[in-house]
Amino acid sequence: MDKENIIKNLSIKTETKIVLLVLDGLGDIPYNGKTALEKAITPNFDNLAKKSVLGLTNAIFSGITPGSGPSHLALFGYDPLKYEIGRGLLEALGINLELTSFDLACRANFATKDKNNIITDRRAGRISTEKNEKLCVFLQEKIKKIEDVEVIIKPGKEHRFVIVFRGKGLEQNLSDADPQKEGHMQQFAEALSKESKKSALIINQFISLVDEILKNEYPANTALVRGYAKFPSIPSMPELFKLTPAAIATYPMYNGLARLVGMQILNTGETIESEFKTLAENFSNFDFFYIHIKKTDSYGEDGNFEKKVAIIEEVDKYIPQVLALKPDVLVVTSDHSTPALLKGHSWHPNPFLLFSPYVQKDEKFFTESECAKGSLGRFPSKETMTLMLANALKLKKFGA
Amino acid sequence: MDKENIIKNLSIKTETKIVLLVLDGLGDIPYNGKTALEKAITPNFDNLAKKSVLGLTNAIFSGITPGSGPSHLALFGYDPLKYEIGRGLLEALGINLELTSFDLACRANFATKDKNNIITDRRAGRISTEKNEKLCVFLQEKIKKIEDVEVIIKPGKEHRFVIVFRGKGLEQNLSDADPQKEGHMQQFAEALSKESKKSALIINQFISLVDEILKNEYPANTALVRGYAKFPSIPSMPELFKLTPAAIATYPMYNGLARLVGMQILNTGETIESEFKTLAENFSNFDFFYIHIKKTDSYGEDGNFEKKVAIIEEVDKYIPQVLALKPDVLVVTSDHSTPALLKGHSWHPNPFLLFSPYVQKDEKFFTESECAKGSLGRFPSKETMTLMLANALKLKKFGA
User: How many angstroms separate the CA atoms of B75 and B55, rounded?
Assistant: First the structure.
């Protein structure tokens, strides 16, 4: 039996409550001698860490730098090598589209072609986001359905937009409708398997319609379509773990990822303060809460070490409020590391802290190097879920 | 997707350079209270360790004692359970034969049979290596080809020799042409699958020819053939990891293993000094260097603890020369442990040290017990490659 089925068979519904606090990109390497966690003044994390068990996690495996999709799936208890989240899907989630299992999501660019159908600019001169929004509304008015397939068109930034084809029998195994390089002929999608023939037909009709509708909209007179992604068939958290889970996040993509695994999305404000307020207000209605703090990652990506430190210090202030709710299990960790030194995601492990009445207290501080000495050792992120469920007494015994 | 394909898809070519220094059999258990690494006076390793991240590796899994083949494959980034290197192949590599993908390598013994074809001595009275060499030259003169298959015959030690059959359509699924016990009839190879029929025919013709040619050479009047091994189809390091790798080793088998995965073999002398000189001389021409130090293992196998310590101290002296080359990543580890106490390979983990600009410094010494507290924890040797590639910034992000 695979691990997923083992957990499914062992999980039970209880009254206990779990809080998973994810500081995106928290993990770090020293920047002028200290990591962000080492530099930050965090009396509440320190106090919590003394009563918690610590460790380090790898989202994928040693040395692999994860994207947000696989690293979050791992935190939610899924094998990130088993479930793939295509680029088109992530983009659709990122602009707050609610997707269904009938959806084929695609990334698209507005582009320029000449009268011989040679693509002369893959980004249509990087048209403004406002122009993009107008073009998408214009296209959506004219294209609502192709055959029995509903078409949803939503703008992204600059020349980028997302198309969701919603209907039966759409598969993702297709070639890109994009020559990848300028100076080459416009390409149409080609089915790479029998199952994808319908998708190819619909996508190519879509492109022909766009060409017709936009013929006077130079430089945005065609569309390149790629990054096809079916809605993945992931068993939901309620199904696998018997949880009634809720997500609190300020960025659409993380809410999208949470929705993908069956979490309910809670309305919240833009600030960290509002996220913790949302937690308190909804605490009686769910038994699992995923709270996502985005800015540790954003400032890491910017190389802004001091601001990353400041965000950690801000989150630290709300820990007493979380503890006042008396969660049975509280985990604080990251999805991946985003060292300011590297200005991007990295392969370094995530600091991990688990607080519950049933832990061997490590009596350490919450930093990468102290977590390295924690009694949980180094383990895969996807085991976060089993550890949380176990500590919430939500897992039966395996075997007699 | 399997891990190998993930790494293949993520790896990119860069200018950064990696040095993998393997002290064969370095890992140890205490001998009169200390391991060889604990006993050795190693100021340079100690200094390096303070700036490095540490851990312990298992070549196969806990409790498994690896041979040199699988333990090196793991260090080179390959799953040692996926790729098998047959005994015949290792023997052929060990006597410096350059092999091709058309080769079927076999181990053979000179043996004695009586006039009723009963094997009376499986080792022909352990004839001398000199006699063996003469017999091999004699046989090679008379047997150059069987049908369309080239035959290469090379002596080993005492009664042992190696045969390489080079031609199309040779497979390894055959029974041994060896009764295994004395007092039994001479055996011929039997094909255990349709694909191996040609190999059986060729090998059995070879044995009949040997019997004819050696009929007056009692006690070496026949040959037993076994350990058939096809050249394995392993994707090369350049293909998988986009590296231009070079090997520096004094023993043929390690060069053979390196050649198997696509490394270029650099000429070097017999001494440790010459190996490091070769590294310096070739440093600008490659982006990955595997340096193999054999004698830590040899003295471990001899149970000679003091000499094992002395080799470690000798290698330590060259660390400043390596650092002076400014490699982006330097790893020091072993393929397996060879405790002097056990006089052989063992299942104990390998001490592991990785130095790069992007590590969380563990600030420890380079010993087994300090590595056990390192922030890399305990991990499979095959992840050595992903860690090295990551720290050399040679891996893209996994997933969006």
Answer: 14
Crossing angle of the two packed helices B87-94 and B252-260, in degrees rounded to 10: 120
| Structural domain boundaries in chain B | 3-84+234-391, 90-230
Cβ-Cβ contacts under 8 Å, A85 against chain B: 399-400
Name the percent of chain B lying above pLDDT 70.
Answer: 100
Give the residues of chain B that fall short of pLDDT 70.
none
Q: What pLDDT is stored for residue B71 in this prediction?
A: 97
Which residue of chain B is at minimal alpha-carbon distance from A227? Answer: B400
Sign of CA dihedral B65, B66, B68, B71: negative
Distance CA A54, CA B286 (A): 41
Q: Is the pLDDT of residue A90 over 90?
A: no
Specify the pLDDT at position B384: 98
Task: Return the residue of B nearest to A84 by Cα.
Answer: B399
Q: How many CB atoms lie within 10 A of CB B63?
A: 8
- Same fold for the domain at B3-84+234-391 and the one at B90-230? no
Say yes or no: B383 contacts chain A, CB-CB below 8 A.
Answer: yes
Between 3.30.2130.10, 1.10.10.10, 3.40.720.10, 3.30.40.10, what CATH number should domain B3-84+234-391 receive?
Answer: 3.40.720.10
Q: Does domain A90-230 have CATH number 3.30.70?
A: yes
Inter-CA distances, A97 with A148, A254, A257, A291, A293, Å: 20, 12, 11, 20, 21
pLDDT at A216 over 90: yes
> Rounded to whole angstroms, what are the CA distances from B50 to A97, A187, A306, B210, B356?
50, 55, 26, 60, 12
Which residues of A260-374 form beta strands (DSSP E)?
264-265, 288-293, 329-333, 350-355
pTM: 0.89
